[in-house]
Amino acid sequence: MREKRLIAEEELLRQRDYMERVRAMHDEPKYAFVDTYGCQQNEADSEILRGLLLEMGYAPTKDETLADIILVNSCAVREHAEMRILGNVGALKPGKRLKPGQIIGICGCMVQQEHMAEKIRKSFHHVNLVFGTHAVHRLPELLYQVLTSGKRVFAIEDKEHEIVEGLPVLRASKTKAWVSIMYGCNNFCSYCIVPYVRGRERSRDPDVIVSEITQLISEGARDITLLGQNVNSYGLDRDDGVNFSELLRRLNAIPGKFRLRFMTSHPKDASKELFETMASCEKVCKHIHLPFQSGSNRILKEMNRKYTREHYQGLVDYARSLMPSLALTSDVIVGFPSETEKDFEDTLDLVETIGFDALFTFLYSRRKGTPAAELPDCATKEERQVRFERLLALQNEHSKERNQRHLGTRVEVLIEADTPEKMNLLARCDDNRPVRFAGDPSLVGRFAIVEITECAKWSMEGTVISILPE
To answer: Which CATH number is correct for 173-284, 3.30.300.160, 3.40.50.150, 3.30.750.210, 3.20.20.30?
Structure first.
C-alpha cells in the first residue's frame, strides 16, 4: 500500500488566497474560454478549471475574441490530437495581437510530456502559461504569477499528489455530471502514454464520492458518469475494502431516480462480481464500454493487455447471460506495429462474433516514450487505411442492425438537451443510445417513455408516449 499523499488543507487555503488576489486585480468584467480535447477525464478537469476561474472573477465564454484568458486542456493519446491542438494554439496568435493583455495557457496531458512542453517554450512565444496534469489545483497561483510578473510560467511537475478534494467545479450541464472516482493508471499498455502523464492509480474516498453524488442528485443531476482510466481497479490502492462493485452498490442505494454509468473498464480486471452488480442494481445502466483493442492474441500480448480474445469472449458471454439487453461498446486499434493481415482478420472475426453496438476505432499512433514506439511496422500507411475502412464498414452494418431492433419498441429515456433541430429534444436510453423527438424545451431533465419510429446507424427518432413523474 502506497503512502497517501493527500493535498493538505493548508495548500488549498493558499490557493484560495491566490484566487482572492487575482479577483481583486479586476476593475472590469473578465472572461475565460476553456477549450477541451480528449477524454471525459479531460472534460471533468475542465469543469474544475472553469470553477477555479469563476472564483477568480472570470465568467465563462465561448468567444475567443472576448476572452481575457484562454486555456487549452490538451490530449496526448494520439499524434493527430497533438498536431490539431498545436495548430489551433498557433491560430490564436493574431487574436492576441489585437488584445495584447490576453493570456493564453495550455494544460493537461500533452504538456505533461517534457518534449512537448519544450516545443511550446521554444516555438509558441505567445503562450503565457503551461501546466501539466498534476498542477490543475495550482491554477490560481500560476495565473497570479503570470499577471504580476509579466513572464511566462511553466509548471510541469513530476510529483503526483494522492487526491485533491474541495476544488470548485462549474459543470457544463445540470442534468448530466462527470464524477472522477480515481486518477492515474497502472496498466502500462505498450502503446499508451497515459500512465506517464497521469501517474499511478489513486482512488478517492468512497464516502466523499457518495456525498458528492448525493449532492448532485439533490441539485437535479440525473445521469452520473463515474470516471477512471480503469474503474475496475478502484479501491486497490486503499485499505478500506471497498472495491468498484461495492462502490456501485453504495451509490445505487442513494435515494432518488437517476442513472449511473462508468468508464472505462479494462477486461483484465472485469469480474463476474462487476456484472452481477450491474445486473442487480436498477440504477446502474445496462451498458459497458469494454475495450478489446485487437482480436489477435499475439498482438494483445505485444500490447501488454494481459488477457486473450477467449477471455474477452467469456466476459461478454457471462455479462449477456445476466443482462440479455446489455449494450456493448469497445475501442479498437488498427495498424499496431507488427500487425499482419492475419492479425487484422482475427480482429474482424471477433467483431463479427461478438456483435458490438458501437466501436471507437483508431489508427495506431506512435507515442514517444512508450515501448511500442520502438517496434517496426509490418504494414504500409495505405494498407493500414484499407484495414481501417474495412473495420468501419463491418461495424456500421452491426450498429445499424442493432439499432433496428428497437424499431417500434417503447423505451425510457432521459431528456438531456434542447437543440435547434426539428426533432429538438435530445434524449438518451439506459443503454446510451441517443434518441431525438419533438417536445417542449421545459422537459429537459425529465424522464419519458418514447416509442421508437425511426432508426439510423448512430441514433434513433421517436414520439413521446408519456412524461414520467419527477
So the answer is: 3.30.750.210
